[in-house]
Design a protein that fits this description.
Elements lengths: L1 E9 L6 H11 L5 E9 L6 H12 L3 E5 L5 H14 L5 E4 L11 H7 L5 E5 L13 H17 L14 E4 L2 H4 L13 H11 L4 E5 L14 H14 L4 H5 L3 H20 L4 H20 L15 H29 L7 H27 L2
Parallel strand pairs: 1-2, 1-4, 2-3, 5-7
Antiparallel strand pairs: 4-6, 5-6
Helix pairs in contact: 5-8, 5-13, 10-11, 11-12, 12-13
Bound molecules: guanosine-5'-diphosphate and magnesium ion.
């Protein structure tokens, strides 16, 4: 019989932990496996660990608690896995959020599906899966951008539709056989992507189970700016060559362009010329910088010699520049309009802008190939 250990990371989940434990021990019970929970708490100031301990005692739940210093979700999971192995708490792990976003009733499905795959990911983006209907456009966009980044920038296998999802299950001994976790590399939420990538690169099978993701109703999300930065940096360095990496700029160049955009944006804002015109000017500066950096002093212009006839060359040059510029400027404007609501932090704008730049560059490369036939 399987011994299942639910690894439940918590940070300030005092309002959720009782309901989460109740849900697990009522909805996830099965005669097919034994069930235990390991709460990995990072010394939550709101006393999550104590509440969990007490509640488990009163109800006779099999709950263990391991605590440590707050170092991010990824590090918490690593600590949890080590603890499960060291204390022999189970042979099968289910990773799950404690904020009630994940439905404990879906756990038996994960265990069942484990007989066919090495990793089962609870996916919001396969048929039957769901993200909350009440999610604002921005959350949906963010979630999609995250997916895009891991796939097309990070080079993650495209067969996984929700590589960053946190509800998942695997057999623990697989960690000994393969170097899946690349220990120490990630500390935040991108840990999920790294793990998916690890399974994928080790040639293991990943299968997805549709889940219905619900929004937390108590407490706050712990995702912070450092998680977003880490997500980007990690994904950029993660995989092999992707079309994106082959054709585009280095991380350093990205930084320069992003910075230029922000600086121009700030200068222009002070000049009181209206936000749309301001965005337009900033986007132009970023585009020119990007072209200059990428194509080393507009080296692409020299390729025009392959086009015959002066008029033709000029026409092609203008056309290419226009395509690129128009696509990028339009995306920046549309996006900025969409994101102009007050609750969006500047950083998520930049992240989204970068992703759009990526799309624009890919489009540009394609056009380039079309125009020059290379
Ligand atoms: N131990 C630990 N748990 C964390 C940390 N960050 C997030 N969590 C937990 O991980 C789960 C998912 O986090 P949440 O903030 O809801 O992420 P979101 O749903 O993606 O917004 C929750 O149970 C959190 O309490 C951390 O640094 N340490
Ligand atoms: Mg959550």
């Amino acid at each position: 019989m399987r011994n299942v250990c639910i690894v439940l990371p918590t940070y300030n989940e005092a309002d959720n932990i009782v309901t989460a434990l109740d849900a697990i021990f009522t909805k996830a019970k099965s005669s097919a496996y034994s069930l235990r929970v390991l709460v990995v708490d990072d010394k939550s100031p709101d006393g999550t660990a104590d509440i969990a301990k007490q509640h488990a005692q009163v109800n006779d739940y099999d709950v263990r608690i391991v605590s440590g210093n707050k170092a991010g979700l990824g590090k918490a999971y690593l600590r949890g896995f080590d603890f499960v192995r060291k204390h022999n708490l189970g042979d099968t792990v289910v990773m799950m959020d404690a904020d009630l976003s994940h439905d404990a009733a879906e756990i038996p499905g994960f265990i069942e599906q484990l007989s066919e795959a090495d990793l089962v990911i609870g996916s919001r983006y396969v048929i039957g899966g769901m993200i909350p209907g009440e999610w604002p456009v921005l959350r949906v966009v963010n979630s999609r951008v995250a997916r895009f980044v891991s796939r097309y920038i990070g080079g993650l296998s495209t067969s996984v539709s929700d590589p960053a999802a946190g509800f998942r299950s695997f057999e623990l001994d697989i960690l000994d056989k393969h170097s899946i976790l690349e220990t120490g590399k990630t500390s935040g939420y991108v840990f999920m992507v790294g793990m998916t990538n690890g399974f994928d690169k080790s040639g293991l099978t990943i299968s997805e189970l549709p889940i219905k993701f619900r929004d937390r109703t108590h407490g706050e999300s712990k995702i912070g700016i450092s998680d977003i930065i880490e997500y980007f940096v990690y994904c950029y360095g993660m995989g092999d060559e992707t079309p994106f990496k082959k054709t585009t700029v280095s991380a350093m160049e990205w930084a320069v362009v992003g910075l230029l955009y922000l600086i121009t944006q700030n200068i222009v804002r002070g000049a009181n010329i209206g936000s749309m015109l301001g965005l337009f000017i900033s986007a132009q500066v970023a585009i020119i910088a990007l072209l200059a950096l990428k194509h080393k002093k507009f080296e692409w212009l020299s390729q025009l010699k392959y086009a015959s006839g002066r008029a033709m060359r000029v026409r092609r040059a203008i056309k290419e520049l226009l395509y690129f510029d128009v696509s990028l400027t339009a995306s920046v404007l549309v996006l900025s309009y969409m994101l102009s609501s007050g609750y969006v932090i500047e950083f998520s704008r930049v992240v989204a802008l970068y992703s759009l730049m990526a799309v624009a560059i890919l489009a540009y490369q394609r056009l380039h190939r079309m125009v020059f036939n290379v």
